[in-house]
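> call design_seq(struct)
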């Protein structure tokens, strides 16, 4: 090899080397190698762009997330002077953004939910069961639906899944995969309530996740 020649990574010689040969077979091989290298390079670029676009789109589609849940209690606080037996003449109901609580105490072991900007919602709940009364530890044959409220102060708009709800499993587990109506346009103060399909009272509330910080 003289000083005017060089070899690249594909074994091609430039400056009068192999790929400068007038042989048709050699020229075809060189062109094929170059095309294959270009195709591989383009495929890598498209793959990277596609993955990046997918992550961006998925993150951008999320309106609110909830990680963890709080069970309901029908009483927010006692009111009035305490009676001699330790009871109170009045109580304040645990009304949350206009939605009444259930008649008994409910507990929930775990809740995870995601609301997308198109109104699609998925909820996975575990262990939603009564925590008081003779049916403690049971699901009371309840079915539940989800409501998203985005307003921190009245008037509140209730964006709900199908009101007939989904039945609780005997251990209190449930899954919701539905679309909220009306569809939320934005959500400045997201609150998720899990409600009974009977009276519409709330049994559990979601804890706002990272997307709502």
């Amino acid at each position: 090899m003289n000083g005017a020649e060089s070899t690249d990574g594909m074994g091609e010689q430039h400056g009068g080397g192999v790929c400068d040969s007038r042989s048709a077979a050699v020229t075809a091989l060189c062109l094929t190698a170059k095309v294959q290298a270009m195709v591989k390079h383009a495929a890598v670029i498209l793959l990277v762009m596609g993955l990046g676009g997918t992550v961006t789109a998925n993150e951008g589609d999320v309106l609110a997330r909830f990680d963890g849940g709080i069970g309901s209690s029908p009483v927010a606080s006692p009111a009035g002077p305490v009676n001699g037996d330790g009871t109170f003449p009045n109580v304040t109901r645990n009304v949350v953004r206009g939605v009444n609580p259930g008649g008994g105490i409910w507990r929930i072991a775990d809740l995870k939910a995601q609301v997308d900007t198109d109104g699609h919602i998925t909820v996975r709940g575990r262990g939603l069961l009564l925590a008081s009364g003779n049916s403690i530890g049971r699901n009371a044959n309840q079915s539940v639906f989800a409501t998203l409220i985005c307003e921190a102060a009245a008037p509140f708009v209730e964006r709900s899944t199908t009101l007939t709800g989904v039945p609780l499993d005997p251990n209190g587990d449930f899954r919701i995969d539905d679309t909220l109506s009306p569809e939320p346009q934005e959500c400045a103060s997201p609150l998720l309530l899990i409600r009974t399909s009977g009276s519409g009272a709330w049994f559990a509330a979601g804890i706002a996740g990272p997307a709502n910080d």
